[in-house]
Specification:
heterodimer; A: mainly beta; B: two-stranded antiparallel sheet; globular
């Protein structure tokens, strides 16, 4: 009987319960109206809860008076009373404060930002493509993150870009300071690039990061410090750029996005050129025969019995000739033509470039998973004639929930790039010798080929003599080369990633990731003959080369996330990593064509038709890692991580190394009752000590093998690897190699605070100090030791700095909003130690200048030979009439790395209209500008006008019959009887200073001699006045956009439409160096400016549609 | 919190999966070791390969493009070996142009110093360490390698100290023993050491014969300089001693006498006959116009105009009317004619250059327009030159062995020894030696000229951008040689010594700047500068040390810093600043 009552009682109880509860359904969407899967919905005060499905739908049974709590990471938690409603739809708002923001951290692990004990920056999709889809995604990062220095180069957008995080430095020039780029969990191949004088292989065609399509990027996270990147091991020592591509998770049903943009590129920031003096040499410098010239300095020749002024041609400089007075002279093509300034001829060397981008993306999501497919095509035409690039980008991202516990995600990105005739270092033609101020650009363009239509116009000896080598140089290296020859690279870049996730329990899961980055570069060079082979048989060039870079990356992580009690949670992982890297290269080339312009490897008059070369390098790495995070009351987070690597780059006995990291994050605003003005406060601290093994084969003691007439020979290395000399000496044998990993130890402290209602002001501050010690460096030793360098583990470079990010909302209104972000980073480096007996380490050098690391100094200090001065400080003038270099002295003139970098980003919106404008800046660095020297040395720069006439301070003199220059009292003096010419000259210079013997200088020279001898002496050694600051403030970007209101497109099949116009590289508000931009380096690992390639300003428009 | 047993099963599954992954990563150590070494390089080369490696560096015996380019550009102008008409330099003040600055400055300053210690020498310490590792039975068979390499070492250090004066020698090349900072030795001590070492090597090789051991079999193959001819190595060593003895003849005549007497009185083998010629040809045909000396001549062609001094003063060519037996037959092999078939040299830069052009061309009957054209020299006249060039049929014989030591030089050394130290050079007739030296030189230049099988269509091809060179028929030179010998006989001792220098100048010309420069400096104390140098140039007594010495070897460099200039004469000049 008792049992019967018990059963009945239970039935009533259940029945009563059923009667009291109701079923509530609804959809949870975000601001864009898209359903959010996985939102937690809990009946307040109970454990009763559910989560939304993939479309954001949910069903829950609750009492009619229940309160539902909707929460999702990154969104504001919302409480909603049911009030007996059967349906409750909710819109969750993004948590603008960011305290619950979820970010991607190392190894793709998603974490709440508040739990991080270190600094990182996150840039979202929209910020990357607001100004159109750039050719290079790094372009979007200018000034976006404190401590991330971005700089374009003179190579244009298809070439490499400089990226440096937290002043990353290296004492080995062959070591890259570039960060690791990780795309969807797969480290991609990246390297320094640059251009050189060799037109065949001196062209910068970019590197792996160039291929990534900004339109496909969901977010970029930048891990700056050692702790942030410790799980990446050695590869993350310079910081990590984590790129997550878009997936189709957001929306159920088919979604389509289409975007199209067009950008116009115009050269800007070209040098200020003088427009008074044309091609030739001044009388005072060339001392021509009196009968061959006149008082104006023209060169005359007898043409059909008539004394005719002729184009100066051979032997003339680009800007020291006669004044361009508009008279008719015989031009080098045999025509009489006006000799007049061509003010825009430098600009006219370039064309309007453009970038056309078209793309679409399809996405879908369902119960089983989601999928996104995107395609983008970019067609880019450079401002440099003949240079263009074509990109096709395919991206696929699909996820499949195989079962409740097993899901698989496959990401495939394929990038096809065809690069044609990227610019090479045309320094001679564009800068060193100058662009002739009288030169009509169209004449070059019209005279690339001769009458045959096949051969080079200037192959004709008479013509080339008449035009002179300067005209021919530009005609050859630029116009002929860029229009007649082909320098092509086809690049296939494939990034594949498969992720398998198995949930064993609600707290234990396994993640397996396998993927690779494969870059395949196919280069083809076709150089035509410039004249018939019968005239010169050693012409023609054809080469094919292939480089395959393969990085196979595998990892496995056992993840756990366990709530120990209400206050304590532990999570983390243990895992394995395996990396296999290989880089193989083969090249075959043919020269000395047998048949003109037949591009075949068998087309050679040589016995051996083609010549081959190649290289290969590879490495493997095994790693074991573990990470544990302890969270206390959601306000104190402790993370401890460690990793051990085994690398083939190190000798077997040293190839294992361990590195730890730890961080602590405290959300003070959760613990303490702070004043209301403080909405959020967090303090953080971290430490890590990471290791890296250095470049591949750096530690090898090995011998090169070659042949002399078929007899094999071997040569020892010119550099000595790290070695155990003691053992070698004791045993009387070659010392065994003993390279060790270099280490980077970094401490970081910081805080984040938000103030005022609506978080109108946010502060994120970091201080860090990093010591890179046991550096793998190649030290210069005396050559008399028998080697050029010894490679050692030595040195200690300290890098410290502060980073500050201020976010503000000066205006927060119903319709009008203004958000602004200021990023600042201030760094300081100090060379604490190099190696025993070594206090100076040259890092890089050009003629007359070097960049060095000196103990006690900063990294990358520049030194040059100053002008020679006597003990009284007077400048010493040599017998050639110009100041002399003091070759026995070196003075410090600055340093490569700026002290302060940053950006100011503004976003204004009024209803659906938005206006963004971004500034970036840097201060404290040094720019050695050879272009500024050349502009004086060749007479084409405005600054070379001083002394050229009476008005500009030139002294009067005459040239006697012994070709001596004799100073005159007055510019109106008559030519004395012993004058070679019947006129006097007005461009004399006597430099203030003393002669070698201490007497006052009285050596009279012509202005041209002053410029050429000063700026071209010592083969253009760097002069004191070629040193500038690399400081600048740039208005980098302006975007004006309009998001069409939903109501306008409600009746269309579009659900989103946006149009925008934008400009990039708008203006330098301030820069120190004239004539060039601070971003004119000819590569990503260059330290002086010499390219002459002008900067580019671009404007464009974009339409983006979603349906 | 308890874990449900079902979950335990899942945890076990997870651990099993994870451990199996771990196992797949096992046995990785051997893979790590395998990949440590660069597959493109050898970790354990053979002794013989390293020996050949020590003989082959460019600029040691065979010549390279880069340094050759700058040497040609600088030394052809400084020493008067080749220049071009140029109003600008004719007008610059005297002593205002320097070779150690500018475009070529750093290369000239650094190349020989850096190459000697690193490129030339880097294999030698490795060879010594490998020798240590050999068994006592094996070692004797490898001694021949060591002796020969030490002759080469003497060759390179003699040249080095001639250029820089004091240089690291006794402590040099210690990198494998962690000795990186070597002291500088004086030129005097280096010369004395080298002379002693060469004497010891000659003694050791006296009577040495190769056996059938593998080491000796390989020596025959790997000796790319002398083809395993031990006697030739002795000749090389003794000729080197002769050269060095004469180099110190001004400053240390007693030592010079001792060495000469040892060689002459003991009738030690020297490089004396055509077959004794020591030199090395470039074998890398594929890159001969890319990486090696011929490219330097191609690009520096305008510095290869025939010097007026050689054409007229040494070779005796005054014009077409000069009797044939008074013209040195080498004129036709060392030089090629201008576009009108005449041999017209270019004078050095200075006030006389243009007047001499006027005079020389006027004497040939050239019209004034043509003479003006010659003075108004432009870069593109190399296909139709107004002046003679070094003969491209001779100098673009890609099979030519670049001379390291020639019989001509030995005989010129012996001739001077006999003039200066007749009591030591007993039995040497200076006239005969002088005559033999010129005869050997004529024969060598004609052999090189005649044996050239290359032209603009062959591979490698002679550059087409210079006017064609000329072949010369082998002359019957007896009358010329007799005349020279007679003339020499009539000279005073001082004139003989000068004449011997001029013959060295003509014989070595652009193929060995170092000896010409050194000999000019040696004889400067007694005779002034004998080379036809331009007064526009600042004379160099030595090279500056590479600037890296000051920063990388500062303590030792301090000892020589006071001499780091261009005008402190080196020890063997017998002169002071």
């Amino acid at each position: 009987m008792r049992k019967i009552f018990l059963v009945l009682g239970m039935c009533f109880a259940l029945l009563g319960s059923a009667i009291a509860q109701q079923s509530v359904t609804g959809t949870v969407i975000d601001e864009e109206g898209i359903g959010i899967p996985g939102v937690s919905i809990v009946q307040k005060g109970t454990n009763n809860g559910t989560i939304t499905d993939v479309d954001g739908n949910y069903t829950i049974k609750v009492p009619g008076d229940a309160v539902l709590v909707f929460s999702f990471v990154g969104m504001k938690t919302l409480e909603e009373e049911v009030n007996n409603r059967p349906s409750v739809d909710i819109t969750l708002l993004t948590d603008a404060v960011g305290i619950d923001e979820v970010v991607v951290t190392a190894l793709g692990i998603k974490r709440e930002k508040k739990a991080l004990g270190y600094s990182m920056s996150s840039i979202k999709a929209d910020d990357l493509v607001k100004s159109g889809v750039p050719v290079n995604p790094l372009t979007s990062l200018y000034g976006k993150a404190a401590g991330v220095r971005i700089s374009s180069t003179a190579n244009g957008p298809t070439g490499g870009m400089i990226i440096n995080i937290r002043n990353s430095v290296s004492l080995t020039s062959s070591s890259s300071t570039r960060p690791l780029f990780v795309v969807d969990g797969i480290p991609i191949f990246d390297e320094n690039t640059g251009m050189n004088r060799n037109d065949r292989d001196g062209r910068d065609k970019g590197t792996g990061i160039n291929d990534i399509n900004a339109e496909d990027i969901e977010s970029i996270e930048i891990l700056k410090g050692a702790k942030a990147s410790v799980l990446y091991g050695y590869a993350g020592a310079n910081g990590v750029v984590l790129i997550t591509t878009k997936s189709g998770t957001k929306k159920k049903g088919l979604g389509v996005e289409v975007n199209s943009s067009f950008t116009w590129d115009k050269v800007a920031y070209y040098p200020e050129l003088q427009d008074e003096f044309g091609t030739g040499s001044s009388i005072g410098a060339a001392l021509p025969n009196a009968e061959d010239t006149d008082a104006n300095g023209f060169r005359y020749k007898d043409v059909n019995g008539v004394k005719t002024p002729v184009y100066y041609g051979s032997g003339g400089a680009a800007g020291f000739g006669p004044r361009m007075d508009g008279r008719e002279i015989l031009w080098w093509d045999g025509q009489m033509r006006e000799y007049s300034p061509q003010e825009d001829n430098f600009k006219e060397l370039f064309q309007t470039g453009h970038l056309r981008t078209n793309g679409f993306a399809l996405s879908n999501a369902g119960d089983m998973g989601n999928v996104r497919f995107g395609y983008t095509n970019k067609k880019f035409t450079s401002t440099v004639i003949g240079a263009d690039q074509d990109n096709h980008i395919f991206s696929f991202n699909g996820s499949l929930d195989i079962s409740k516990n097993i899901s698989v995600n496959y990401i495939s990105n394929y990038y096809y790039t065809f690069n044609h005739n990227a610019p090479f270092r045309m320094q001679d033609g564009l800068v060193t010798y100058g662009v002739n101020r009288d030169m009509k650009t169209q004449l070059w363009k019209d005279n690339i080929v001769d009458d045959t239509g096949v051969y080079w116009y200037f192959r004709d000896k008479e013509r080339s003599e008449a035009a002179g080598s300067l005209v021919g140089k530009l005609g050859s290296s630029y116009f002929w080369n860029q229009t007649q020859n082909d320098f092509d690279e086809t690049r296939h870049h494939l990034i594949q990633s498969v992720n398998l996730n198995i949930d064993f329990t609600d707290w234990l899961s396994l993640t397996l990731r396998s993927g690779f980055d494969m870059t395949r570069k196919l280069n083809e060079v076709k150089k035509k003959v410039t004249r018939p082979l019968s005239e010169n048989s050693q012409q023609g060039y054809y080469s094919v080369e292939e480089r395959n870079i393969f990085n196979f990356y595998n990892n496995a992580y056992l993840n756990f996330d366990k709530k120990i009690n209400d206050d304590l949670n532990i999570s983390g992982l243990i895992g394995f990593v395996y990396e296999d890297f290989s880089d193989r290269y083969v090249k075959s080339l043919t020269q000395d064509f047998l048949v003109e312009n037949w591009f075949s490897l068998s087309n050679s008059s040589k016995d051996v038709k083609s010549e081959g070369s190649g290289s290969r390098r590879s490495s493997v790495l095994y790693g074991v890692l573990a990470s544990a995070q302890l969270a206390y009351k959601d306000q104190l987070f402790l993370e401890i991580q460690g990793r051990n690597d085994w690398s083939s780059i190190l000798p077997p006995q040293n190839n294992s190394y361990f590195y730890p990291g730890a961080s602590l994050s405290w959300i003070a605003s959760e613990t303490l009752d702070l004043p209301e003005v403080i909405q959020y406060a967090k303090a953080r601290a971290s430490f890590a000590d990471v290791g890296r093994p250095g470049p591949i084969y750096f530690g090898n003691l090995a011998f090169n093998v070659n042949s002399y007439g078929g007899i094999a020979y071997a040569t020892a290395s010119s550099d000595m690897p790290p070695a155990d000399f003691e053992t070698g000496i004791a045993e009387g044998k070659l010392p065994p190699e003993n390279l060790k990993p270099e280490r980077k130890r970094e401490f970081e402290f910081g805080f984040e605070m938000n103030f005022f209602q609506g978080n109108r002001l946010g502060v994120d501050f970091s201080w860090f100090q990093a010591n890179i010690y046991d550096q793998i460096i190649a030290l210069d030793v005396p050559k008399s030791s028998g080697v050029n360098k010894i490679k050692v583990n030595a040195g200690d470079v300290q890098n410290s700095g502060v980073e500050l990010q201020l976010t503000g909302k000066p205006v927060m209104g119903r319709n009008f909003n203004w958000n602004t972000t200021l990023n600042l980073a201030k760094y300081n480096t100090e060379i604490k130690e190099l190696s025993d007996g070594v206090d100076v380490l040259p890092l890089w050098g050009v003629t007359g200048a070097s960049m060095e690391a000196r103990v006690g100094g900063e990294y990358g200090e520049f030194f040059i030979n100053p002008w020679k001065r006597d003990e009284n400080g007077n400048l010493v003038v040599g017998s050639n009439g110009v100041y002399q270099f003091d070759t026995e002295q070196q003075v410090k003139v600055g340093k490569q790395i700026p002290d302060l970098t940053g950006g100011l980003n503004n976003s204004l919106s009024y209803k659906s209209i938005y206006l963004d404008f971004d500034f970036d800046f840097q201060f404290g660095g040094t720019l050695i500008s050879q272009t500024n020297m050349y502009l004086k040395g060749n007479g084409t720069g405005k600054e070379s006008l001083k002394y050229r006439d009476e008005a500009r301070g030139g002294l009067p003199y005459y040239v006697n019959t012994d070709n001596q220059k004799i100073l005159l009292e007055s510019h109106s003096a008559a030519a004395p009887s012993d004058s070679k010419y019947d006129f006097i000259l007005h461009d004399g210079v006597i430099l203030p200073g003393v002669k070698e013997d201490g007497s006052e200088n009285n050596t009279l020279i012509a202005a041209q001699e002053y410029y050429e001898r000063t700026y071209w002496q010592g083969y253009m050694d760097i002069t004191e006045d070629a040193i500038y600051k690399s400081d600048y403030v740039a208005l980098r970007r302006i975007t004006l956009g309009y998001e069409l209101p939903k109501r306008w497109i409600n009746n269309t099949f579009f659900n989103r439409a946006r149009i925008s116009v934008f400009g990039n590289n708008i203006a330098y508000i301030y820069k120190d160096a004239p004539n060039v931009t601070p971003e004119s380096y000819a590569g990503t690992n260059e330290f002086t400016e010499y390219s002459g390639m002008p900067g580019v300003r671009s404007f464009g428009c974009e339409i983006k549609l979603g349906f | 919190m308890k874990i449900p047993y079902k979950n335990i099963l899942n945890i076990k599954t997870g651990v099993i999966v994870f451990v199996s992954l771990l196992l797949t990563f096992s046995s990785c150590q051997s893979e790590l070791e395998d990949q440590f070494y660069d597959p493109e390089r050898q970790t354990e080369p053979s002794f013989e390969m390293l020996f050949t490696g020590a003989l082959q560096p460019t600029e040691l015996f065979r010549l390279e493009y880069g340094p050759g380019y700058h040497q040609a550009r600088a030394f052809n102008r400084v020493l008067g070996l080749g220049t071009f008409p140029y109003a600008y330099y004719n007008n610059v003040p005297d002593n205002s142009v320097t070779a150690w600055t500018g475009w070529s400055g750093a290369t000239l300053r650094n190349t020989q110093f850096n190459k000697t210690y690193v490129d030339f020498n880097k294999n030698i310490p490795v060879l010594n360490l490998m020798l240590n590792g050999l068994s006592e039975e094996e070692k004797p068979n490898y001694e021949i390698y060591v002796h020969c390499i030490n002759v080469v070492k003497a060759y390179m250090f003699q040249r080095l100290t001639d250029i820089y004066d004091d240089v690291p020698y006794t402590e040099a090349n210690g990198a494998y023993e962690k000795k990186f900072w070597a002291k500088y030795d004086t030129q005097e001590s280096i010369y004395m050491s080298l002379l002693d070492e060469l004497k010891e090597i000659d003694n050791a090789l006296n009577g040495f014969e190769l056996n059938n051991s593998l080491a000796h079999e390989k020596f025959r193959v790997h000796d790319i300089l002398n083809n395993g001819d031990v006697l030739k190595w002795r000749k090389f060593a003794n000729s080197m001693r002769l050269r060095m003895a004469m180099r110190i003849s001004v400053v240390a005549p007693d030592k010079a006498r001792e060495v000469i007497a040892d060689i002459v009185k003991n009738n030690l083998p020297v490089v004396s006959e055509a077959d004794d010629f020591i030199g090395m040809a470039e074998k890398d045909y594929a890159h001969v116009m890319e990486w090696y000396w011929p490219r330097a001549m191609k690009e520096m062609w305008y510095n290869f105009h025939a010097p007026r001094f050689m054409v007229r003063d040494i070779f005796g060519y005054e014009g077409p009317t000069t009797p044939e037996d008074q013209i040195d037959p080498r004129l036709y092999t060392v030089f090629q004619p201008n576009q009108w078939g005449d041999y017209v040299g270019v004078d050095i830069w200075g006030a006389d250059q243009f007047p001499n052009i006027e005079a020389d061309m006027g004497a040939l009957g050239y019209e004034q327009d043509r003479i003006n054209g010659a003075k108004d020299w432009v870069y593109d006249d190399h296909l139709e030159p107004y002046f003679s060039f070094y003969n491209k049929i001779t100098y673009y014989n890609f099979d030519m062995e670049y001379p390291a030591f020639t019989p001509s030089e030995t005989h010129l050394l012996l001739a001077e020894a006999a003039v200066r130290f007749p009591e030591s050079a007993t039995g040497i007739n200076p006239v005969e030696a002088y005559r033999k030296a010129i005869e050997e030189s004529i024969n060598w230049y004609y052999q090189v000229n005649k044996s050239n099988t290359f032209d603009v269509t062959t591979n490698p091809a002679i550059p087409a951008n210079i006017m064609d060179g000329s072949y010369a028929a082998q002359p019957v030179a007896d009358a010329f040689l007799d005349g020279k010998a007679a003339s020499f006989t009539g000279m005073s001792n001082d004139e003989k010594i000068k004449e011997i220098f001029y013959q060295k100048f003509a014989h070595l010309n652009v193929l060995n700047y170092w000896e010409i420069w050194s000999e000019t400096r040696r004889l400067q104390k007694e005779y002034g500068i004998l080379a036809p140098v331009s007064q526009k140039w600042v004379w160099m007594e030595r090279f500056y040390y590479p600037s890296s010495e000051e920063t990388t070897n500062p303590d030792n460099f301090q000892e020589v810093a006071h001499k780091n200039n261009h005008d402190t004469p080196v020890w063997w000049t017998g002169r002071t600043k």
